[in-house]
From TrEMBL:
Keyword Lipid metabolism carried by entry: no
GO molecular function: pyridoxal phosphate binding; transaminase activity
PANTHER family: CLASS II AMINOTRANSFERASE/8-AMINO-7-OXONONANOATE SYNTHASE (PTHR13693), LD36009P (PTHR13693:SF3)
Protein name as annotated: Aminotransferase class I/II-fold pyridoxal phosphate-dependent enzyme
InterPro entries documented for this protein: Aminotransferase_I/II_large (IPR004839), AON_synthase_class-II (IPR050087), PyrdxlP-dep_Trfase (IPR015424), PyrdxlP-dep_Trfase_major (IPR015421), PyrdxlP-dep_Trfase_small (IPR015422)
The Aminotransferase class I/classII large domain, residue ranges: 47-391
Protein source organism: Candidatus Heimdallarchaeum endolithica
Length: 401
């Protein structure tokens, strides 16, 4: 039998992985965390400050959310027992969808069992032959995946570049039936915010639809964490399709689409993951539902994450690091450079008791290796102090600052 690991692209990756492993550079990947991915974590019996968790508001270990999940297991069991369209819809799913629609100020919402498939579901079921999907070059992989699955054509504009977006819209408007502009509200590798007001203006001018992925915006952007509309002061219906995940600020799993009632009805009857993939398990749905309530009941968490992010950006910038255009979000990239240097930096941070994920090519440009720092509402002043001291020490050792 031929060896499947000899397939060129498999062999190439394995070679790269082996090189990093021998130099003990990729130890930071897939590090088993023995407990909640909170601000402090334990891994292989050592304690660390976590600077990479998506639990921006620190809800991952919230007692009321855990209680809701446990009670859901007692009431409903551990699985939903089917797909949403047939036997998998629980009253819990309905309550969660109602809550999300309320939170996002839309008529209705649909929940899927992963954020990734949510983007695939939207783009592949709504848009088809004769349509054009225009995405930001830095859009999340799941938006790319949705484009590939869709029968529509798709193209990209330069990151947050409104002139480039307008050029594409102008050149293509007459050639297609429907055009949708799909962007991330907060970009997951750069931590900057989509220029929604101008995107909406262009969409109106060229009769295009808008879609925004708020995976990293919910709980972080806007006075009360409601996301991009609140942040920019947009009108209720300025964005046609609002997508978000239940796996980041909301400490669960799953994704949602929120928007007009008719559109949600269409998705319930026509999107493959709703019809052919198992429904969100009860404890996950219950945890997500409770988390939305907690965001509303504990508004200080939103303020805290915003303040901590500002403090962190100011601190690392003063040390001399480049944080790109990250502003007002909980994702702050600290640019290191080459792949090896980035891994080295992450390893040394770990030795200083801080876990921070390195992100390298192809997720980011070749020399744009970075530490993707995620600040949490629950990081204390003492944590911040330790984190910044470690950045200073390692930055000097590796001659980055
Ligand atoms: N969109 C964005 C912007 C993301 O960052 C992610 C996850 N990293 C997803 C979608 C996919 O969400 P999930 O992990 O919940 O499947």
């Amino acid at each position: 039998m031929t060896d499947i690991t000899k397939i060129e692209r498999v062999a190439k990756l394995l070679k790269r992985e082996r090189k990093l492993r021998l130099a003990r550079l990729n130890d930071v990947y897939m590090k088993p965390i023995e407990g909640p991915t909170d601000r402090l974590v334990t891994s292989e019996k050592k304690d660390y400050i976590m600077l990479g968790s998506y639990s921006y508001l620190g809800l991952i270990n919230h007692p009321e959310i855990k209680k809701a999940a446990k009670e859901a297991i007692d009431k409903y069991g551990t699985g939903a027992g089917g797909v949403r369209l047939l036997t998998g819809t629980l009253d819990l799913h309905k309550k969660l969808e109602k809550k999300i629609a309320e939170f996002k100020n839309t008529e209705d919402a649909v929940v899927y069992s992963s954020g990734y498939v949510t983007n695939e579901a939207i783009l592949s079921s709504i848009f088809s032959k004769g349509d054009l999907i225009v995405i930001d070059r830095f859009a999340h992989a799941s938006i790319y995946s949705g484009c590939i699955l869709s029968k529509a054509e798709w193209t990209r504009f330069q990151h947050n570049d409104m002139e480039d977006l307008e050029r594409i819209l102008k050149e293509n408007r007459e050639k297609y039936n429907n055009i949708v502009i799909a962007v991330d509200g907060v970009y997951s590798m750069d931590g900057d915010v989509a220029n929604m007001p101008e995107i909406i203006e262009l969409a109106k001018k060229y009769d295009a639809f808008t879609m925004v992925d708020e995976a990293h915006a919910i709980g972080v952007l806007g006075e009360t964490g409601k996301g991009v509309e609140e942040y920019f002061g947009l009108k209720k219906d300025d964005i046609d399709i609002k997508m978000g995940t239940l796996s980041k600020t909301i400490p669960s799993v799953g994704g949602y689409i929120a928007g007009k009632k008719e559109l949600m009805t269409f998705l319930r009857y026509s999107s493959n993951p709703f019809i052919f993939s198992a429904a969100l398990p009860p404890p996950s749905a219950a945890a997500a539902l409770k988390a939305f309530e907690i965001i509303e009941n504990e508004p200080e968490r939103v303020k805290n994450v915003q303040n901590k992010a500002k403090e962190f950006i100011k601190g690392v910038k003063e040390l001399g690091f480049d944080t790109l255009r990250s502003k007002d979000t909980a994702i702050i990239p600290v640019i290191i450079g080459t792949e090896v240097k980035t891994f080295r930096f992450a390893n040394k941070m770990e030795k200083q008791g801080i876990i921070v994920p390195p992100v390298v090519y192809p997720a980011v440009p070749r020399d744009g290796g970075r530490l993707r720092c995620c600040v949490m509402a629950t990081h204390t002043d003492e944590d911040m102090d330790r984190i910044l001291k470690a950045f200073e020490k390692v930055g000097k050792e590796l001659q980055i600052i």
